[in-house]
Amino acid sequence: MHEIIVLMRGVPFLSYLRLSIYMAIVSVAIVVSFHLRSQPSALELRIAKPLGIIFWILAFACLLVGFGNYTSPYIHYLCPGYCTLLTTFQKR
Predict the structure, then answer these.
(1) pLDDT (tens digit per residue) in 8-57
(2) Contacts of 17 (CB under 8 A, 6+ apart)
(3) What residues does the DUF202 domain cover (predicted)?
């Protein structure tokens, strides 16, 4: 039964990975400022790069959270003392 739970940990990781890729694509689209019929205004061009960077940072953070959730069961096997150290900090 434990093996099934460990194998199912990959399913949320794939969801985080998909969300991260979508957010990275949106960030590129914002920075490039796709306009098919008209030119982007000066305000759009000025806001595009910071907004795209914010989306890219969120995409990277989402990828890190997914990877952290995926690897969390394996940390218990690799570092047995890590759990006690972590619970000590959470109780404070």
Answers:
(1) 555 677 888 899 999 999 999 888 887 667 888 888 888 888 999 999 99
(2) 63, 66
(3) 13-71
Q: Note the pLDDT of residue 57.
A: 95
Using an 8 Å Cβ cutoff, are 54 and 30 in contact?
A: no
| Residue 42 exposed, middle or buried by CB count within 10 Å (0-12, 13-18, 19+) | exposed
Q: Which of 62, 84, 76 lies closest to 18 in space, CA to CA?
A: 62
Looking at per-residue pLDDT, the higher value among 84 and 57 belongs to: 57
Report whether 59 contacts 24 (CB < 8 A): yes
Take residue 75 and report the two structure tokens written for it. 């940390």
Question: Which residue in this structure is represented by tokens 């959470």?
Answer: 90
Length of the chain: 92
Transcribe 47-65 into DSSP letters. Answer: HHHHHHHHHHHHHHHHHHH
